[in-house]
Design brief:
Strand content: under 5%
Number of strands: 0
Structural class: mainly alpha
Largest sheet: none
Order of helices and strands: HHHH
Radius of gyration: 11 Å
Distance between the termini: 9 Å
Helix content: 55-70%
């Protein structure tokens, strides 16, 4: 499974309207966890907690697709 860099992850957040409830500190820690090798499950939970009305499974599915290698 491919790792997403911060720019790719940021683009996904913007495109999907994720992290709309998180503050700057949480957003920074989110990217820190990503750079430390957080699992897709952990990243999905962080996004879900800091987003309005986005089901966890939808976030997980989008991240899974973006991290899939051919």
């Amino acid at each position: 499974m491919k790792r997403l860099d911060s720019g790719e992850l940021r683009t996904l957040c913007i495109r999907n309207n994720w992290f709309t409830c998180g503050d700057i500190r949480q957003y920074t820690r989110f990217f820190q966890r990503n750079s430390e090798g957080a699992t897709i499950e952990e990243l999905s939970v962080i996004i879900w907690i800091c987003s309005d009305d986005i089901p966890y499974h939808d976030i997980y599915a989008v991240l899974s697709k973006a991290m899939k290698t051919d």
